[in-house]
C-alpha cells in the first residue's frame, strides 16, 4: 500500500557444493521509502538448516547495503544464485521455522529480538503481571499482544537477557491448569529469534496491547518494520 510498501515472494532452485538441488524461498518487504531504506528480507528452505538460512539472509543484507538508494532486488537475486553454494558450506538439513532457541542460534552480541506464541492464559491477570515484571527486571522492551485467541510476545534486548527470559518462561509456575493449580508454561512456541536489523524499529517500553482485528495487529508490525515477520508467522496461527 502507499503507507506500508509491498511484500512479495521469490522462489529459486540452485545447486549446493554437493550438486544437490536447493529450493530457496525469499520474502522481500519493500518499505515506502525503498530503495532509500533497506528491504526486510526473510530466507527459508526445506533443504537448509535454520543457521544456514540466517547466514544467507545476513549476506543478502550486506549486499543490499552496497546498493542503497538504487533498485536492488534483481541484483540480490542474481547474487544469491551465484554465491549460495559458498555461503552454505555445512551439510544440508531441514530448515524449520518453529525451532528451539538454541538450535542454530548465533552467540553474537548486540540487540536481539524474540517472537513467541502462547496457546492460552487461564490466570490472565497474574500471568500478565508476571511477564511485565520479567521484562522490567531483564530490561526487555516489546509487546504482549492479544488478538482474539491469539497471544503473541515480541521482545527486544540483550541476547543474554532474552535467554534468561526464556528460562523463566519455561521453568516458572506462571499459570494455572484446568484444576486451577499452579503450573509451568508447556504450550509456548518460539516462532523466531534474530538479531535486530537496521530496518527494525526499537521499542522503548514493554506494553500490553489488545487488537480487535488482524488488520490492526498487522499495522503494529508494519510500523515497527516487521511486516515480513508478520507475514511469515501470524496468518498461519488462524488456521
Automatic annotation (TrEMBL):
InterPro entries: RWD_dom, RWDD3, UBQ-conjugating_enzyme/RWD. GO terms for biological process: positive regulation of hypoxia-inducible factor-1alpha signaling pathway; positive regulation of protein sumoylation. Its main location: cytoplasm. GO terms for cellular component: cytoplasm; nucleus. SUPFAM superfamilies: UBC-like. It holds the Pfam family RWD. The keyword Protein biosynthesis does not apply. The keyword Nuclease does not apply. Transmembrane segments: none annotated. Keywords: Cytoplasm, Nucleus. Residues 1-87 form the RWD domain. It is found in: Cytoplasm; Nucleus. This is RWD domain-containing protein 3. The gene is Rwdd3.
